[in-house]
Structures are given as C-alpha cells and as structure tokens.
Amino acid sequence: MSILDFFKKSKEDKPNNKVTNYIGFSGGLTYGLGFTFRRKINNTAFQTSGLAFRRADEGETKDKKNINYRNTLNSVYIGGGTFLYTLNEGKYGNLYVSLGSGFLRKRDFSARNDIIPTKDPTTGQYMAPPEPKESDLKYYEDNIVRSFIGAGPAIGMEFKFAENFVFSIELPLAFVFTFNNDNLKEIKFNNIIPFPCAALLYKF
Predict the structure, then answer these.
(1) Using CB atoms within 10 A of its CB, is residue 92 exposed (0-12), middle (13-18) or buried (19+)?
(2) How many domains are contained in the chain?
(3) Which of 29, 87, 92, 154 could anchor a disulfide with 150, C-beta 3.0 to 4.6 Å?
(4) What is the C-alpha separation between 55 and 33, in angstroms, rounded?
(5) CA 45 to CA 30: how far, in whole Å?
(6) Is 80 within 8 Å of 49 (Cβ atoms)?
(7) Which pLDDT belongs to residue 95?
C-alpha cells in the first residue's frame, strides 16, 4: 500500500461516511507544534502534529583526556494529539469542541575539559599552567532535560476560505505540567493557561 492509498477512503468506511483529510501546520498548548495531519470522519476527527530540532557539536577530538575535548547536544521535540467533534457545520465554517494534549521536550547536554588553575608561589595568583598535562584537566558534564505537557478541553471555530483551505482557532483550558530529566515521578502541576491554538490546513 502506497502513502497515497492511505489517504483514500478505505473499504471499511461505510458508503454514507464523509471522510476528509487535512495537512498543514498547527500550534498551541494542546496541539503541540509543527507539521499536522488531521482525518475527519463525519463529525469526528483526530489530529496529530510534530516537529523536531537537533544540533550537535563534537569539537576537534573525541578523546576525553585531550585538553580540546568538548561535546554539546541541543535538541527539542514537540508534538501532540487532539480529538475534535463538530457541533454545527455551516457553509463557511463550523463550531467544534476538542480534547487534546501537547508536549515539549528540551535537552541541553554539554561536556568539556577545563584547566585547573595553579597558584603562583611568587605572586600568589592563580593561573593556567603554560603546558597543561592530563592531571591539570578537570572534566565537566551537564545534562539538563526539561519537559512540558499541556492537556485539556477546548472550544473552537473553523473558517473555510479559497476552495480547499481552512483556518481554525480555539480556546483551550490547558492544564500545564512540568518535569525534569524524564523523571515522571517528579511531575508537577504548573498552571492553567487559556492560550489559543491555531491551525492552517489544506483539505482533500
């Protein structure tokens, strides 16, 4: 089965079912952020979105005993999933309710060697040795992972324009939770934020 076949109406869909697919972009606390796919069958729809960013710098050498050793990694993963139900559909738009959850995971990792300064017996000042040895190096490593989850119900409106484009905006009641270093035991309730979600989609 090809990718295009997936978007077509399947044999299991009843003849009276109205199936519509959407692709585009969306963002919000209960949407996640990024590229978006939505599939709607009659009045019920499911939407998923995601975006990833990763940047690494391994420096000049991979030898942790080398003075020039450094290693950094920055990554961000954003995604979400939402169920939508249409309450009323008109010619130029519709009114709907939704229940969704979005997440963000951000990791900042850094490792490096720093020179341990030595005290000059003459001046009493600390300075780097002119020719540092392995014993003059100190290895440092930081690994910080922060995660955010926003989940809750919402009410929204979808506006149709052009021939196959829609723009939707909704106001969720988003319950925001945070935790660090992927430790779900330390998950904490942070706030309730009614921050709007929006999507620009092409339907087919």
Answers:
(1) exposed
(2) 1
(3) 29
(4) 19
(5) 15
(6) yes
(7) 96
Q: Residue 7 domain-assigned?
A: no
Residues 22/202, Cβ–Cβ less than 8 Å: yes
Q: Look at residue 62 and tell me if it is in a domain.
A: yes
Whether the CB-CB separation of 65 and 111 falls below 8 Å is answered with no
Please, what is the Cα angle at 190 between 188 and 194, to 5 degrees?
Answer: 140
Residue appearing with tokens 């009659």: 42
Distance CA(103)–CA(127), nearest Å, equals 46
Residue-wise pLDDT for 14-64, tens only, equals: 557 889 999 999 999 999 999 999 999 999 999 999 999 998 887 766 776
Q: Is residue 6 part of a domain?
A: no
CA distance 187 to 203: 38
Q: What is the 3-state secondary structure (H, E, C) of the chain?
A: CCHHHHHCCCCCCCCCCCEEEEEEEEEECCCEEEEEEEEEECCEEEEEEEEEEEEEEEECCCCCCCCCEEEEEEEEEEEEEEEEEEEEECCCEEEEEEEEEEEEEEEEEEEEEEECCEECCCCCCEECCCCCCHHHEEEEEEEEEEEEEEEEEEEEEEEEECCCEEEEEEEECEEEEEEECCCHHHCEEEEEECCCEEEEEEEC
Within a domain: 131: yes
